[in-house]
Amino acid sequence: MASAAKSRSKKLVALKDRLNRLLAELDELCTSSADVFEVEEQVSLIEQSFRVADALQTEVELDLEGEERQAAIDDWALCRQNYRVGKARARARMVEARGEGPIGSGSVSPGMPAVRSSNGRLPEITLPKFTGKVLEFPSFWAQFEANVHKRRDLDNATKFTYLLSNTDGTARNAIEGIPLTPENYSQAVDILKKRFGRP
After folding, report:
1. For 169, left (φ over 0), alpha (ψ -120 to 50), or beta?
2. How confident is the model over 45-75, as pLDDT tens digits?
3. Which of the chain's ends, N or C, has fewer CB atoms near its CB within 10 Å?
4. d(CA 48, CA 40)
């Protein structure tokens, strides 16, 4: 039984390594002039690897106890976050590509959201990351609202992707469980405003 647990643990390490490599490749594709179909295929490979790793992670956690289990849960939470962020960025790039052509045609830096200006170019806009500090919310929201939220040329799925990319800590935790769909964007905004937008 112990050897089976050790085997599962080794397999999980290999799967996490593969997932990290696929995510790194996805990041390279999103920042280059890659074809949108190539990005979609990479996302599909990542989703498959993630599902297998997630199932195995559950089995490995059941083999552990106490601090070891908690360490495994924390480690997987980090992997899951990297997966979500990578996938969200890829979706944003795919939306961009469908509207404009090849990915990377604008000057977009990894980790920085890009919004369309009226001339069709994608200016580089560095928005602050909101970590959940109530006193920083008004400043964050003012910039996010002006650069993303009020843009009529961005759909709600893209806005939601930018919102996720620009939150961290308790702010991110408040909205990360919400499925990334256009319909859920306003719900995520309401949650942040109610929780952090207090006077």
Report:
1. left
2. 888 888 888 888 888 888 888 998 888 888 8
3. C
4. 13
